[in-house]
Amino acid sequence: VVLNWLIAQENVVPIPGAKNVAQAKEFVGALGWRLSNEEVDELRSLALEISPVTGFPVEKL
User: Would you kindly state where each structural domain of the chain is located, as residue ranges?
Assistant: First the structure.
């Protein structure tokens, strides 16, 4: 779902990095279907509700 959501975004070119054969097969499986416009809109609205994390992670220790 994440890979297809990224593909649906304008000006985004996802470059997945597979660490093993299972991950590569999962990425290839994402190419056989697409999210509907309604699904993309719903995911986009959910993403807007997320507060970004700021600062370098070490500062959170």
Answer: 2-60
